[in-house]
């Protein structure tokens, strides 16, 4: 990256600062009061309908107060709260699977996508198979995955990896194809060989799309993981949600759902942070406003 | 013709009877037809013509981005492309400066400028860096070395791109409407900057533009091209002596050259407009 | 490796290219190679692939099924679920997205709530949906609805935001009323994004339908009486050890998914002819 100190008055813009900037832009609530009003409406309605008025089917749903009490209970009625080690074990099981799947999918998907975008020959011979398999929903692979891979962990990881792989490879390929053709041409003029063009132009040029793809990939990974865990798995948040339904431990269902949401969101945010760190040039471009 | 341009010995391009046909969805399109042009070593040759007439195709053929379907192009006597070799190889002897800029956004200005010699293996990283720093200082770019292209103004970006090209001691500089996107104030500054760079480096410049004033101000010769298919319609010698400055713009000789050029170009421009040419 | 870098994309006249360069020929070759590798891998009991029924067996299992009305009924059931859930998502999602785009206040109130709900995977809602909704079909429909709606809403919002502000300015300067602007600027401007949102959403929908059908068919511990559909078909085949049927089911869903995407794409092209690229 940059060797010396950049001569910019904006100073060094760290990845964290960029994250906060983007986060606040994303929520785009200049009035935090309206945001609070929204939350109040949502949670308030939920609370009133399920716990106070016990309106229609809402009566069987646990209300937010019940869920919160259970979640923060040092001695939870149903055995699952922030204070029980089992809770963290389930989170860790799911997280571990997502991490492994994401790592494999990225390690395979990014190079695959780069070549798909870079070489016409490679693409015309490989993409058709990829595109033919892609319409099959990942979750339709569940039984086949169980048949193919012995054990409990491998099918789940396989499914998650498959879903992530599609997203990563596709977005990486789009990233390569989105590179302005002037860039490789300029590099060729300057005497770069094909491999040098790949290394210095294609890979950095595709990086923005690659990171978008990685964010999508993490989201898709959680989607598939939870589904796979619900259908066949032991431990993990998906499994927890399922089993607490079966064992009529309804507040735990919601604890599970909320936990998945939080962990999923955090992993997406981490990927975006990593992307901002790796693409300093883009961070500055965006933060200083279009300097064109 | 002035003595300085005569002193250069490399970078003479000979375009002979070049044809270029390409196949679009509508069918075959003849972009260039039987085009012949001699560009003298060390001169600034301005190529002027209506939009979509094929001038960029000519530049791309010289640069090696396209093949040609007929004729030949020689550089200093050596065949670039022609019979038996339809496409030239892009190389550091003919560097292109692109219309919308092609500085690599993920490298700092300094890394961009040093890119050429480093990837060719001609200079080590440290040496390239030092040479780049020197050239950038010469071009008045000190202080922007460690910025990314996205952080500096478009005028600065253009200069960095030109310096990046010059790092490779090219024979020819191929400029594809490089100042088109700049406002006229920045443009005039860039003109003088380009001429300064030219006086120091004596490289042959092949410059495509729409701007007639720019063409006459900068060029030794102005080649006016017809609408598609592209062919030189008229070649004007600009006998205003170098070095030039902006005072030249109001001289009577400049005015009469403008008149000649406008008349020649206008006819082609009307033809292009009526044909509904899209920018290629 | 062909000169990807330096050549501008130029299709050469047919005569000048060899048959092996044609992209359809290459596609056929690659799929054929894939099938052959699959067949050999399955027959020679390679790890993993060896457990999968070879394509020939799958094909032979499939032929009699084509005449089985039960098989086609599975198609109908799944498609019906996809359609109803998806249409519900569009009916609610598109107006919501437009409301968020046009009214700042509405956006500020509702968007944060959606952003915290969005990371929860649709399938995690299944048990809660079963508790809440009186029938199985409604709960599946609800989960499908959730799966698609976030994507559609986000795309509508993004599309409405990205309409060039100058279009609004031009319309105003020509004297348009608010309703006119909505009808003639916002709606058409948002249409391409709606189409994109639907294309992505339909993929999610199929995933959810398949999973829901598998879960309700006895996968996982949730049992129920309602069932049917292609997801159920696959799960049933698994339980019943008819492994070739699993693959038949997978391919069938793939085809169904592809058809629905293609329909959306075609519809999208007719609704937004201006978005067609040359």
What report would you give on this structure?
The complex is a heterotrimer of chains A (292), B (280) and C (278). Chain A has 292 residues and is an all-alpha fold. Chain A has a single domain, classed as Orthogonal Bundle (MetI-like fold). Chain A is built from twelve helices and no strands. Chain A has helices spanning 15-27, 32-52, 64-71, 85-118, 120-133, 142-148, 153-177, 182-189, 194-231, 237-246, 250-278, 280-287. In chain A, helix 4 (85-118) packs antiparallel against helix 9 (194-231) and helix 8 runs antiparallel to helix 9 (194-231). Chain A starts with 14 loop residues before the first helix and ends in a 5-residue tail after the last helix. By secondary structure, chain B is α/β, with parallel strands linked by helices. The radius of gyration of chain B is 19 Å and the shape is globular. Chain C has 278 residues and is mainly α. Chain C starts with 22 loop residues before the first helix and ends in a 7-residue tail after the last helix. Chain C has helices spanning 23-43, 55-65, 69-102, 104-117, 126-132, 136-161, 165-173, 178-216, 230-239, 243-271. Mean pLDDT of chain C is 81; it is low at 1-12 and 219-226. Classes of the chains: A mainly alpha (292), B alpha/beta (280), C mainly alpha (278). Chains in contact: A-B, A-C, B-C.
**Rg over alpha carbons of chain B:** 19 Å
What's the CATH class label of chain B? Alpha Beta
Number of spatially distinct domains of chain A? 1
- The appropriate CATH architecture of chain B is 3-Layer(aba) Sandwich
CATH class bucket of chain A = Mainly Alpha
Question: What's the average pLDDT of chain A?
Answer: 83
Work out the largest interface and the residue count of each chain: A-C, 79 and 74 residues
Which homologous superfamily in CATH is the superfamily of chain A?
MetI-like
Would you give the CATH topology of chain B? Rossmann fold
The averaged pLDDT of chain B comes out at: 85
Q: Would you tell me the structural class of the helices and strands of chain A? A: mainly alpha
Shape of chain A: globular
Termini distance of chain A?
22 Å
Number of helices of chain B: 8
Order of helices and strands of chain B, N to C?
HEEEHEEEHHHEHEHEEH
């Amino acid at each position: 990256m940059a060797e010396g100190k950049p001569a910019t008055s904006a100073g060094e813009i760290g990845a964290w600062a960029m994250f906060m900037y983007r986060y606040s832009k994303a929520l785009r609530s200049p009035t935090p009061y309206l945001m609070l009003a929204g939350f109040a409406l949502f949670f308030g309605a939920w609370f009133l309908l399920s716990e106070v008025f016990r309106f229609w089917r809402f009566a069987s749903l646990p209300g937010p107060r019940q869920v919160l009490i259970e979640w923060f209970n040092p001695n939870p009625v149903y055995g699952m709260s922030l204070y029980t080690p089992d809770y963290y074990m389930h989170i860790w099981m799911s997280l571990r699977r997502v991490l492994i799947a994401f790592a494999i999918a990225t390690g395979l998907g990014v190079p695959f996508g780069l070549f798909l975008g870079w070489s016409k020959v490679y693409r015309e011979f490989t993409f058709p198979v990829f595109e033919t398999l892609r319409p099959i929903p990942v979750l339709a692979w569940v039984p086949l995955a169980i048949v193919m891979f012995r054990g409990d962990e491998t099918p789940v990881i396989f499914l998650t990896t498959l879903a992530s792989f599609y997203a990563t490879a596709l977005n990486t390929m789009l990233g390569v194809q989105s590179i302005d053709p002037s860039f490789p041409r300029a590099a060729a003029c300057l005497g770069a060989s094909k491999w040098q063009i790949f290394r210095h132009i294609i890979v950095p040029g595709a990086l923005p799309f690659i990171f978008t793809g990685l964010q999508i990939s993490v989201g898709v990974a959680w989607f598939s993981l939870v589904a796979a865990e619900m259908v066949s798995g032991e431990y993990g948040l998906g499994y927890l949600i399922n089993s607490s339904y079966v064992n009529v431990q309804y507040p735990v269902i919601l604890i599970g759902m909320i936990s998945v949401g939080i962990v999923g969101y955090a992993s997406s945010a981490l990927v975006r942070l990593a992307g901002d760190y790796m693409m300093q040039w883009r961070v500055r471009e965006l933060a200083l406003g279009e300097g064109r | 013709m002035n003595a300085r341009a005569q002193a250069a010995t490399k970078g003479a391009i000979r375009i002979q009877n070049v044809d270029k046909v390409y196949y679009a969805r509508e069918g075959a399109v003849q972009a260039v037809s039987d085009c012949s042009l001699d560009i003298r070593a060390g001169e600034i040759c301005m190529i002027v013509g209506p939009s979509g007439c094929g001038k960029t195709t000519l530049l791309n053929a010289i640069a090696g981005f396209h093949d040609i379907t007929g004729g030949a192009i020689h550089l200093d006597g050596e065949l670039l492309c022609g019979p038996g070799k339809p496409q030239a190889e892009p190389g550091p002897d003919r560097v292109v400066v692109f219309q919308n800029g092609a500085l690599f956004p993920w490298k700092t200005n300094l890394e961009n400028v040093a890119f050429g010699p480093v990837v060719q293996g001609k200079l080590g990283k440290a040496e390239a860096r030092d040479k780049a720093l020197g050239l950038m200082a010469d071009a008045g770019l000190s202080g922007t070395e460690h910025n990314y292209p996205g952080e500096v103004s478009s005028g600065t970006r253009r200069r960095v791109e030109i310096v990046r090209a010059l790092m490779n001691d090219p024979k020819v500089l191929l400029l594809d409407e490089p100042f088109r996107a700049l406002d006229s104030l920045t443009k005039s500054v860039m003109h003088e900057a380009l001429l300064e760079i030219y006086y120091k480096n004596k490289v042959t410049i092949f410059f495509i533009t729409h701007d007639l004033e720019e063409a006459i101000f900068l060029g030794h010769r102005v080649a006016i091209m017809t609408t598609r298919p592209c062919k030189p319609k008229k070649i004007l010698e600009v006998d205003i002596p170098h070095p030039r400055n902006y005072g030249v713009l109001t001289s009577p000789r400049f005015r009469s050259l403008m008149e000649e050029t406008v008349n020649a170009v206008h006819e082609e421009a009307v033809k292009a407009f009526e044909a509904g040419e899209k920018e290629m | 490796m062909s000169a990807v870098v330096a050549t501008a994309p130029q299709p050469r006249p047919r005569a000048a290219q060899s048959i092996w360069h044609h992209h359809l020929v290459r596609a056929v070759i690659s799929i054929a190679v894939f099938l052959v590798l699959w067949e050999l891998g399955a027959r020679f009991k390679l790890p993993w692939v060896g457990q999968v029924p070879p394509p020939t067996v799958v094909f032979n299992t499939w032929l009699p099924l084509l005449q089985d009305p039960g098989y086609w009924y599975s198609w109908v059931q799944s498609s019906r679920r996809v359609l109803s859930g998806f249409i519900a998502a569009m009916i609610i999602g598109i107006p919501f997205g437009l409301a968020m785009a046009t009214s700042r206040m509405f956006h500020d109130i509702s968007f944060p709530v959606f952003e915290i709900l969005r990371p929860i995977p649709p399938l995690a809602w299944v048990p809660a949906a079963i508790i809440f909704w009186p029938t199985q079909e409604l709960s599946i429909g609800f989960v499908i609805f959730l799966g698609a709606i976030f994507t559609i809403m986000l795309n509508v919002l993004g599309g409405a935001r990205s309409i060039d502000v100058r279009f609004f300015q031009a319309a105003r300067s020509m004297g348009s009323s608010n309703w006119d602007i909505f009808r003639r600027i916002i709606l058409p401007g948002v249409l391409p994004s709606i189409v994109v949102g639907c294309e992505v959403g339909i993929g999610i929908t199929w995933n959810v339908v398949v999973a829901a059908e598998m879960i309700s068919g006895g996968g996982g511990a949730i049992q129920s009486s309602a069932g049917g559909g292609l997801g159920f078909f696959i799960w049933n085949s698994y339980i019943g050890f008819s492994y070739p049927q699993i693959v038949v089911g997978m391919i069938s869903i793939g085809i169904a998914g592809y058809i629905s995407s293609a329909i959306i794409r075609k519809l999208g092209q007719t609704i937004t002819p201006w978005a067609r690229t040359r």
